Amino acid sequence: MKRLVFVVTHGITANLLLRGQLSFLRESGFDVTVIASPGPDLDAVRTREKITTVGISMTRDVRLQEGPRALAEMARAIHRIKPDIVNASTSKAGLLGMLASYGVRVPKRIYLIRGLRFEGYTGAKRLALAQAERVTAACATDVVCVSNSVRDIVVRDGLAASRKTHVIPSNGIDPARFRPRSETRADALRIRRELGIPDDAFVAGFVGRLVADKGVDDMLEALKRVPNAWFLVVGGNIADDHLPEQTADRLRKRAHVVQVGRVAEPAPYYAAMDLLLFASYREGLPNVPLEAAACELPVVGYRVTGVVDAVEDGVTGMLVPQKDTGALGAAISRYVGHPTLRATHGSAGRSRVLEQFTQLATWKAWEALYRA
Predict the structure, then answer these.
(1) Positions in the chain whose pLDDT score sits under 70
(2) Mean pLDDT of all residues belonging to the chain
(3) Are 307 and 319 in contact (CB under 8 A)?
(4) Are 298 and 312 in contact (CB under 8 A)?
(5) How is the chain split into domains, by residue range?
(6) pTM for the complete prediction?
(7) Nearest-angstrom CA–CA distance, 70 and 30
(8) What top-level class would CATH report for the domain 3-172+358-371?
(9) 181-356 in CATH: which number?
(10) How far is CA 364 from the centre of its chain?
């Protein structure tokens, strides 16, 4: 039985982005362990997926004082498990996991790039983060990018040699969980009435972490062009995330905004939306636009890394230049006045998810890589 270890910084990554895949691999004959910061999310993973977990405290931000301690704990844990394969992802855990795995001579070391954090910075910090990516990739035997646009940057910027890169989505979408709107109308009406949203209102929705680089300010600015639209915000801060107070205040004060916080099951909330508004500045391969597409929602967002892989512009949604809030608002307005266009793009979105991004196909691609 091959021993397979996943390393992520925060347990929420395993809880949300490896859901189902861990138990699939266990049932396929792998001995699966997840290493992440301890907490309720990691506990939930252990219980639901019936796998082993190891808690090692790590923050998402780079903190030099915690690095040696976390690296030593990581190396001891991996040496004790003696895995055949380590899959490490997210920037902090990726670096620590690959360094530790290289140090204790794990035979196969996979660095999974879920996104390129340096894209959000300039100057010295950008250079430092890019160099950390090179070091992490150098310790890996294989580098897996979650999307083609991420791989293009990895190869272009010399972060990893083309020959050692692969493209596989992180986890894929469950089409039975995220269902067409025609099948979830009762959920839509129930959620709207619980939240005080009129049945006939136009609802733009957002799902995800509430942080500045998700474009929260931009979405509020764009919605000024559609003042009668409601804005349904599902999600919140995790770990050491935070939203600038000025932005949080704008969100609280805008009329027709409903915030519901982080929810265990987002599918019914997609049913209550007419489109997904996703103004993130950078991604790897974002799950949220794909979940929305599976629910037959068109997506409006920025033409940036990762999002260009999740949304086919003019087919499953509309993409506009980054930070062009005028164009973002115009795209929303176009859908408000054209319900047939919403239906056409929504239907195309679900078809694309079924063809390219289902969980089972993704899990089998990962299994094939591990066995190879």
Answers:
(1) 60-66, 238-241
(2) 95
(3) yes
(4) no
(5) 3-172+358-371, 181-356
(6) 0.93
(7) 26
(8) alpha beta
(9) 3.40.50.2000
(10) 20
